[in-house]
Amino acid sequence: MKSLYYKIIALLFLVIAINGCKPDEAINPKKIVPIPGYNDDNTPNTGDGLPLGPQGTVEFQIDGVKTTYTNVSYEVFYPHTPQAFVSPETGQINILGTGANPAHDLFSLIFLNSKAGTYDIFLINAIDLFGGDGDDAKVKVTTFSDGLLQGTFNANLTGDDNKTHKVIGSFNIKM
User: Fold this and answer.
1) What is the total count of domains within the chain?
2) pLDDT at site 33
3) Up-side HSE of residue 146: CA atoms within 13 Å toward CB?
């Protein structure tokens, strides 16, 4: 009879052990909402950013917080001119925007070309974040004619906290 009890106890132990070790259902979000301009699947950065804002604006979004500057301008250094000393073969475009406090609310974007297309960003500064050359930062110029400069940008910038922040934006400037 003892042998039967041992077999029943062993069987109960196995049943409890097997039923008690079922893996729980995965705790994953049920709905994934993409962040505009962000990709984490190693696809190349195409420079896509925010939709164009009204004419005379630079708009950018840092970690989901959108900022719009209306005091904006750009400067073009055409190829083979003395001003284009950083990139004499392609020229360069500098975009500048300031907010209410120009000492702190500053946006600047420099890329080494002077025509429509997608390019690496040479330097970008958005408030207190910096980045550029070598940071997979891209600008896409969609329109550059008759004094109108329009496009988007997409970059990962670093702040004083040494953390990376996703910055996407657009510019729509008429000079």
Assistant:
1) 1
2) 56
3) 0
113-172 pLDDT, tens digit each: 999 999 999 999 998 898 877 667 999 999 999 999 999 999 999 988 888 898 999 999
> Is 145 within a domain?
yes
Q: Which residues contact 169 (CB under 8 A, 6 or more apart)?
A: 49, 50, 58, 59, 60, 61, 126, 152, 153
Q: Residues 82, 75: contact at Cβ < 8 Å? A: no
Which residues fall within 8 angstroms of residue 31, CB to CB, at 6 or more apart? none
**68 Cβ contact partners less than 8 Å away, ≥ 6 residues apart:** 53, 57, 58, 59
Q: Which residue has the higher pLDDT, 82 or 47?
A: 82
> Which residue type does 112 have?
L
Residue 94 and residue 74 in contact, taking contact as beta carbons nearer than 8 Å: yes
Burial (CB count <10 Å: 0-12, 13-18, 19+), residue 30: exposed
Is residue 41 included in any domain, yes or no? Answer: no
pLDDT of residue 142: 95
CATH classification of the domain holding 124: 2.40.128
In a domain, 23, yes or no: no
pTM of the complete model: 0.73
Angstrom distance (rounded) from CA 148 to CA 139: 16
Residue 76 lies in a domain: yes
